Amino acid sequence: MSEKLEVGSIVEGKVVRVKPFGAIVSLGKVQGLVHISQVANSFVQDINDHVKVDDVVKVKILSIDEESNKIALSIREAMPKEERRPKNDKPFNKQPRRQNFNKDNNEQGSSNPAQEYFRPHSSVNASSDFEDKMKEWMKQANDRQTSLNKRANKRSY
């Protein structure tokens, strides 16, 4: 590997060590780090599931710090663009939001559970329903506070 290393270039390297935080990749006479966040497109729980010692991998050079002799590498960025997309297949925020409109009663449809939950029900008096929920919430809050006070009093002895 006599080629000159430049930021942005894609080169092949050999994994020489695997640590919990990333993989050390040899690029000939120098070594660089592929941080665990740069190993795959998806969340990496255990790096050993993705790379092993002596694996030959393509990496993109993200940065070169000549003073500290550190090279940041990325396996994820070296992948072809089709493979970079997460396995969910859907790009983020690319699809327009849809409004389900029910023509019969001029209300939003039930596509959004939050809208369904917070929509007032005609058969229930809204103010009494609110008061009941508020009373229940206050009871729960008082119970939690009582429990916390008991714990605090036990610690003070």
Lay out the secondary structure.
Elements: E1 10-19, E2 22-26, E3 31-35, E4 56-65, E5 70-74, H1 81-84, E6 101-102, E7 107-108, H2 113-118, H3 126-155
Parallel strand pairs: 3-5
Antiparallel strand pairs: 1-2, 1-4, 2-3, 4-5, 6-7
Our measurement of the CA-to-CA distance between the termini, rounded to an integer number of angstroms, reads 69 Å
Number of strands: 7
Helix content: 25-40%
For the largest beta-sheet, the strand count, sense and barrel status come to: 5 strands, mixed, barrel
Shape, principal axes of CA atoms: elongated
Taking Cα atoms only, what radius of gyration do you get, to the nearest Å?
28 Å
Explained architecture:
- The chain has 157 residues and is an alpha+beta fold.
- 25% of the residues lie in helices and 25% in strands.
- It has 3 helices and 7 strands.
- Strands 1-2-3-5-4 form a 5-stranded mixed barrel. A two-stranded antiparallel ribbon has the order 6-7.
- β6 (101-102) and β7 form a beta hairpin.
What can be said about this structure in brief?
With 157 residues, this protein is of the alpha+beta class.
